Amino acid sequence: MCxxxxxxxxDDTDSYYGGCTTWxxxxxxxxxxxxxxxxxxxxxxxxxxxxxxRGNGALALKLSSLTDEEVKExxxxxxxxxxxxxxxxxxxxxSWGGERQERFAxxxxxxxxxxxxxxxxxEKIGPTSRYFLKKPGxxxxxxxxxxxxxxxWSDATYELIAYRENQSYERPEFRDDVLWMDSLTAPxxxxxxxxxxxxPLIYPHGPDPVLxxxxxEDPRVLKAGMMMLGNSSSLWMVxxxxxxxxxHVVAVNGFAEAYPYRTVSIDARVASNPAIVSGGHVVIxxxxxxxxxxxxxxxxQTGNLNHVARRIMKGDLVRIWGGVRPEAERKVINGxxxxxxxxxxxxxxVPSCPFCHRKMREINAGRYICDRCKVEAVGRARxxxxxxxxxxxxxxxxxxxxxxxxxxxxRRPIRTPQE
Length: 419
Prior knowledge:
Elements: E1 6-11, H1 21-31, E2 41-44, E3 57-63, H2 68-81, E4 91-95, H3 102-110, H4 115-125, E5 129-133, H5 141-149, E6 157-163, H6 175-185, E7 189-190, E8 193-194, E9 199-200, E10 210-216, H7 219-228, E11 236-241, E12 249-251, E13 263-270, E14 275-276, E15 282-288, E16 293-298, H8 304-309, E17 317-324, E18 332-342, E19 346-349, E20 361-364, E21 367-369, E22 376-378, E23 381-384, E24 394-395
Parallel strand pairs: 2-11, 12-13, 16-18
Antiparallel strand pairs: 1-3, 1-4, 2-3, 4-5, 6-10, 6-11, 7-10, 8-9, 13-15, 13-17, 14-15, 15-16, 17-18, 18-24, 19-23, 20-21, 21-22
């Protein structure tokens, strides 16, 4: 092991009750900062997986070398820092060389990795790897370890995370400072502030050591943003990440390919006008290009996206993406985004009399008569509609309802000198 480039993969060291895998990685990156060959990696895995803990993020470090004694030191630190409450499976993988497992890594972001797939991959990398589990036999965290180490970076953003010294104190939130920082650094930074409701988005609210996180395209701008906030934290780290890339979204041809626990994008025709159900959620009936039915649900919490979904009409051709519910009877997508591809611009209604302007009465299929003027008409009246939804514009949730992997509309990746 000594003298060879080495990967450290870490996953599932947090729980709903505390802990943070990024903090574990940041501490190790600080310990071995002179041997780091790249930014620490923060890879968000499939957000639809039901047995995730919180953000479903896995971490990886690439070092120039690591001695046998340092391997023991790393394992001891990670296992001591890991939380083992609930369904977490704290895992550590140390790997030096071997065949890249990029297909496995991509699937971990977009789909479900089975236990057998994990076992086969561990057999492949076994001669050049060593793993450690806090819970004997609980190896699910190794999925994230392998995925973070082998992630192919076709697109990337960065996040600067600062950590608080004492977790017993509440995080101070400086609303005006965050708004000022956002106004000066956006769009190179993103997801800092929800201007619709006046809420800072950089502060988490869980029982973890994170003080704040600033996301964006350029590490230099993230560091400038941290200085604008007057950060005094002694531990902070810039991570290379797949956040904001839509890497989890899989384009499918129809509902038959919309498997549970995946995030899919599908083009479909709106089969019925939106229904607003209890709680303010919007349900839209859809039919794909093969005639198969499905539904999309836009929850009230998605804010702006929910309001746009209410204005969709029967006959519209739309592109919708979101997580597929695990329901056997029908395919239901929890909407995360919407594009109106081809709007329905006509509306049919019972014709009016051209003389008295009263609505006519249907006397048989497709034939109408005005009871006052005795004027007859054939067929329903077709009216031109003026729609207030812009075709081919990407509509997304309000900023406070954004999830880690969602790509902000208009985001344009940039290449920094560090890449």
